[in-house]
Amino acid sequence: MSEIKIFLKQGREKSVRNRHPWIFSGAIARVEGQPGDGAVVTVYDYKENFLARGIYNRQSQIQVRVFTWQWDEQITLDFWRRRLGRAVMGRQALAQSTDSNAYRLVHSEADGLSGLIVDRYGDWLVVQFLSLAVDKHRVDILQSLTELLAPRGIYERSDGEGRGKEGLPTQTGLIQGEMPPENLEILEHGLRFGVDVKAGHKTGFYLDQRDNRYKALPYLAQAEVLNVFAYTGGFSVYAAQAQAKHIVNVDTSAPMLQAAQQNMQLNGFADQSVEYVTADAFDLLRLYQQSGRQFDVVILDPPKFAYNKQQVEKATRGYKDINMQAMRLLKPGGYLLTFSCSGMVSADLFQKVVFGASVDAAREVQIIERLTQSSDHPILLTCPESDYLKGLVLRIVN
Ligand code: SAH
Question: How far is ligand 1, taken at its centre, from the CA of residue 230, in Å?
Fold first, then answer.
């Protein structure tokens, strides 16, 4: 098979040399040969020095996704086996845990597999092929996953953000093995959760918050807790475990709150004092303030507010507003656990926004802890885009 060569424009080799895996169309000077979408291509700088090997997709702005910087590494079945094996090895400690059986096995770029997400939920795997590169090689990827993990079933949730930009349609459904049950039960730090892998957000559960839910436990003990953007009650089940006095769950989605209630029951917390409020967070926080409600702990874990650079300013206004509102609801000595999963909003910027909120709320606020995504969602140093979730534990001094 003859090699298909991509030559970059002068100066555009830098990010590839720095091992960033995305090559944009504007960086390409010429293509030698006629690669189809999904073809393996070799990338050279303008002086024709070898840079990397990747997979081509003319339909995307990211025209080449780099998979290796090694001249002698070919992208064959054995390559996918090695890459996936490496990712699985990186989760060995989690795999051996007896109190958690749901975690991310493959975190896209951070695992050298641009566009591939694989989450483990007990005996099942849920996969997302979010780039054409991994979609075209799905047969090899699925074979490797089966060899490595022998899952009971593999379910596809290729409906994430980004498929459209790659020229790919949404694709969901059972790929192989047994269909996962409607409410697949998983264990997280000894707590039980039902996961709807077919219709839940992302692949069904916010695994990226697993470590933070655990870290929240000491703050939640005996507290009156307001869990805003509650989804299926992740933080609330931990609050109940920590014997919180009262828990209020807020979400715009009634079905999600119903799932939250089921998760409480699943853990034997049915008798705890819990409210489920279907409402818009922005409105409800104001309403609570008007009625003088106070809490010991407020959790703010909103959905992504900024999907691109243009949306950052509006997103920061949104973050500032909810954080200010939340601070006003906290008793002196109370804690705000606040998050942003917008990759476009850096940890620095997020801290500035929260600072602004504290000034407007006229509260004195300390940072107690800085939080990030769970350890199974690694951040690749050469790909800052893999660093997206940030959080702060704030103490409202007075
Ligand atoms: N903390 C959760 C994940 C939160 S995901 C966990 O640990 O599992 C964000 C949630 O915010 C979703 O359930 C979504 O339905 C909800 N949501 C989105 N916009 C909202 C709004 N304006 N007000 C209230 N909830 C909202």
Answer: 5
